[in-house]
């Protein structure tokens, strides 16, 4: 959530007013808000760009059936009450996506120019409770040296590595296990005091960790010229020389 707030602040620094929003997007938002207020989960499920990502370790919503089952957790009375303050002026245009940013909204929901919801950044009390329950289950399975954190940022793997990026009381933490080991085993590497850096206004984040002459960069690349350049990457440097570059797959 901290990263979402950072993006919103950055957007308002770049622009002092809400960008022009196409009429079709305004109509789409009014229709979506109406469906949410009327609790029409079935109709709304057809207006989602799946998967709808949720904060780790909550599972992503991957299809209409899962969305309908999760609907009351996703949209509670507090969110519906908040939507009563909706008007066209709260829509912010950023890279052909349109978010509820103005007024009392803080990027709670975004839709694409096709009128489908691409992200929901609001978390109900029930969802936060579920997140805490799942977090505790994972912490109970993990090695005692790394079973405490404030927020999990990423869990990712390659053929030979399992990696976690967590926000802890000591800042961002990098943890990795080699192939054949699980989270209940002692990690091969634990690094604290990582640096988080946004990749401009186009999306994506870089987490940098130091260990002597070694630098570990965990890149979440969201905007790129070709698909093979987007995704998660781990780059390892010895001094200024790249010694390894690995594509990762996000998991939960």
Task: Tell me what the structure shows.
About 3% of the residues have low confidence. It contains six helices and twelve strands. With 252 residues, the chain is α+β, with helices and mostly antiparallel strands. It is globular, with a radius of gyration of 20 Å. It has two domains: 123 residues, Nuclear Transport Factor 2, Chain: A, CATH 3.10.450; 109 residues. 27% of the residues lie in helices and 33% in strands. An eight-stranded antiparallel β-barrel has the order 5-6-7-8-9-10-11-12. Strands 1-2-3-4 form a four-stranded antiparallel β-sheet, with helices on one face. The protein starts with a helix and ends with a strand. Strand 5 and strand 6 form a beta hairpin.
The number of distinct helices, counting runs of at least 4 residues, comes to: 6
* Text of the CATH class of the largest domain: Alpha Beta
Q: Which class of secondary structure composition applies to the elements?
A: alpha+beta
Write down the overall mean pLDDT.
92
Task: Compute the number of strand runs.
Answer: 12
The radius of gyration computed from the alpha-carbon positions, rounded to a whole number of angstroms, is 20 Å
SS strand fraction: 25-35%
- Count of domain modules: 2
Q: Unreliable segments (pLDDT under 50, ≥5 consecutive)? A: 12-18
Q: Can you give the helix content as a percent range?
A: 25-40%
CATH third-tier fold name of the largest domain? Nuclear Transport Factor 2, Chain: A
Order of helices and strands: HHHHHEEEEHEEEEEEEE
Question: What's the main sheet like?
Answer: 8 strands, antiparallel, barrel
Strand order of the largest sheet: 5-6-7-8-9-10-11-12
Distance between the termini: 18 Å
Proper CATH architecture of the largest domain: Roll
Silhouette: globular
């Amino acid at each position: 959530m901290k990263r979402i707030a950072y993006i919103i602040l950055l957007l308002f620094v770049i622009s002092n007013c809400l960008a022009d929003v196409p009429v079709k997007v305004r109509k789409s938002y009014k229709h979506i808000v109406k469906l949410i207020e009327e609790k029409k989960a079935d109709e709304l499920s057809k207006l989602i760009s799946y998967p709808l990502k949720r904060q780790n370790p909550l599972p992503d919503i991957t299809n209409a059936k899962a969305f309908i089952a999760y609907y009351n957790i996703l949209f509670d009375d507090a969110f519906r009450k908040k939507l009563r303050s909706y008007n066209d002026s709260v829509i912010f245009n950023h890279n052909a996506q349109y978010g509820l940013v103005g007024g009392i909204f803080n990027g709670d929901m975004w839709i694409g120019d096709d009128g489908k919801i691409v992200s929901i950044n609001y978390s109900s009390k029930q969802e936060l409770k579920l997140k805490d329950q799942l977090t505790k289950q994972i912490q109970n399975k993990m090695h005692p040296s790394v079973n405490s954190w404030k927020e999990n940022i990423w869990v990712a793997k390659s053929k030979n590595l399992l990696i976690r990026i967590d926000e802890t009381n000591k800042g961002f933490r990098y943890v990795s296990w080699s192939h054949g080991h699980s989270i209940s085993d002692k990690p091969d590497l634990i690094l604290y005091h990582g640096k988080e850096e946004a990749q401009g206004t186009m999306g994506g984040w870089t987490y940098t960790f130091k260990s002597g002459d070694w630098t570990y960069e965990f890149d979440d690349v969201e905007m790129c010229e070709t698909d093979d350049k987007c995704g998660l990457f781990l780059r390892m440097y010895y001094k200024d020389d790249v010694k390894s570059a690995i594509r990762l797959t996000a998991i939960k």
